[in-house]
Amino acid sequence: MGYVLAAIAGLVAVGLYLTLCFYVFLYVALPVSAITGVIGVVGGVATAVVLAGLGWGGKSKQIVLVGPAAVMKGAIGGRPVPPGRPRRDPAWPTYFVTQYRRDLAGIIAWLRESVQDSWQVCGRGARKVSRTSMYLWLLVWPAVPVVLAFLSMLSLGAVLGALFCALIVAVVTGLAWAVGGAVVWILRGADHAWQVVFRAAASCPRCYYVTRLPAYRCSCDDLHRDIRPGKLGVLWRRCGGRSETCGRRLPTMVLRAARVMTPVCQRCDADLHANAAVATDIRIPVFGATMAGKTRLIAAGLVLLKDAFGGQASFVDKESERTYRSHKTDFDGDRPMPKTAKTNPVATTIDVHTGRRHALVHIFDAAGELYVERKANAELSYLDQARTLMFVLDPFSVPDVRARLTGPHTATLAEANASPHDTEASYNSTVQRLRDAGVETGRRRLAFVISKADLLQKLPEDLGLRITDPEAWLHDRGLDNLLLSARRDFSDVHIFIVSSMARTTNGVATALDPLRWLLAGEGITV
Asked: Which residues contact 441 (CB under 8 A, 6 or more apart)?
């Protein structure tokens, strides 16, 4: 009878125990699991908002920021660059280029670690209880469903939270790329349209490299070689120069950067002139034989051009200003011009502006020997980029003129200091150099200048050397083939009979007239 009562008591105890477990599961485990699921989702979303900016603990590594150093090494790619130069500029990339991927991966890794650690802690606790005592295990067993429900719903919530984070990041990133990409192309198009309409470019006066995209120097002295809107910033970029300590906010676009930053040549890293790649860029090479009067023509032209524009013209660097002052002293004092050095010339640049439009006029004066010698003029690459050129012909170098100046007129020949080189050779060598470089001379304009006209005007009429009709004069001197070649080679040729000795002349053009014609073709009215 005692065994029966004990069995009945045991069954009742088991029943009460199972009933207790049922009610614990019903009123504790289920609510706890529901709350845990919500906590998991909210925790995941909260983690996405915070973005684990300071990193996360455990076995995972901290989130690594993609900084300027990584960008320069190619973390976000970039076009090929010359050896020794960085793939991209020292600047912080925009968030939705690459950093968002690392933050999202960090969030998922943190959630995974948190869930994994929770399961491992509970597993270690269960093993410890089971080893301690069977009776202790029976006492804590009702809590097992609660813990399992908690961990299961926490895991599910973490998964849902991670998926929700990924969805939000994907949507926001897609919108950022769509809107940002459209703005980038609009701003780049505005830069390009301005430069096409106004013929703007950046030309280096030293190495002669021409580009529409110069480099720009930040105040920290680091260079930004591609300031256009893009992956390093749409409207603005943050400089990461000087080992990521600069932090200066820089404007994108050439049009905006030109106002606050120093332009730099992409090839030789020399400073360019203010407004480079924004102002109309006009390059005027003056070529011809040695002693043809090129330097005197340029000196007089610069002085008269500055006088014509007055305060609307300025020389943009110290060397150009020094050259102008030297030319003005020689021109006003009627002094002989020094012989041009036989070195590659540095452009003399004057900034002229009418209203809001600026133009940088670069005038190149090279020694005549460089134009005659084919090997020497191969280095004069500024010829290739010029839309307008000026050829100077010394009339006293023409054999027919020299033959007529005999007897009392030899003094005039000596005063003219005539060029000893063949006129046509200096022209042909330069034009052939342009053709060898692939230049379409048929799209260029040429000012054909007959210099030293003041001396020709002093000669008696019976010598037949005064110029009234320049084409007829060239034909009579046996230079009709030269003129024919010039008209065939260039799209527009205008002949000028010029005296470079005074501001006003009698019956001939001043040194300003060829410049005025060339600039008018570029839309600049003198």
From this structure: 431, 434, 435, 489, 490
Q: How many CB atoms lie within 10 A of CB 78?
A: 17
Q: DSSP secondary structure string, 96-112?
A: TTTHHHHHHHHHHHHHH
CB 222 within 8 A of CB 239: yes
SS3 46: helix
Distance CA 280, CA 198 (A): 5
210: β partners: 203
Number of residues in the chain? 526
Q: Between helices 143-198 and 99-132, what is the axis angle to 10°?
A: 170
Three-state DSSP at 392 gives strand
DSSP string, 217-237: E-TTS-EES--SSBTTBSSEE
For the segment 72-114, what is each residue's pLDDT rounded down to a tens digit?
A: 888 887 777 777 677 789 999 998 888 888 888 887 888 788 7
What secondary structure does DSSP assign to 154-211, as a single string? HHHHHHHHHHHHHHHHHHHHHHHHHHHHHHHHHHHHHHHHHHHHHTB-EE-TTT--EE
* DSSP annotation string for 331-391: HHTTPPPPPPPSSPPPPEEEEEEETTEEEEEEEEE--HHHHHSHHHHTT-GGGTT-SEEEE
The answer to whether residues 55 and 82 touch, using CB atoms and an 8 Å cutoff, is no
Q: Which of 360, 381, 387, 393 is nearest to 492 (CA)?
A: 387
Burial (CB count within 10 angstroms: exposed 0-12, middle 13-18, buried 19+), residue 402:
middle
In the chain, the amino acid numbered 104 is: L
Task: Show contacts of 64-69: CB within 8 Å, 24+ apart.
Answer: 64/102, 65/99, 65/102, 66/93, 66/97, 66/98, 66/99, 66/102, 67/92, 67/240, 67/244, 68/92, 68/239, 68/240, 68/241, 68/244, 69/240, 69/243, 69/244
> Considering Cα of 474, then 477, then 478, then 479, what sign does the dihedral take?
negative
User: For residue 71, how far is the Cα from the chain centroid?
Assistant: 17
Which three-class secondary structure state does DSSP give residue 238? strand
- Could you tell me the two tokens for 164? 């929700």
CA distance 140 to 233: 59
Given a contact cutoff of 8 angstroms between Cβ atoms, the answer to whether 285 and 379 are in contact is no
Q: Which residues contact 228 (CB under 8 A, 6 or more apart)?
A: 184, 187, 188, 191, 213, 252, 253, 254
Residues 184-242 have pLDDT tens digits of 999 999 999 999 999 999 999 888 999 999 999 999 999 999 999 999 999 999 999 88
How sure is the predictor about 56, in pLDDT bands with cuts at 50, 70 and 90? very low
Run of H or E including 250: strand 249-251
Instruction: Tell me which residue of 467, 471, 464 sits closest to 508, measured CA to CA.
Output: 467
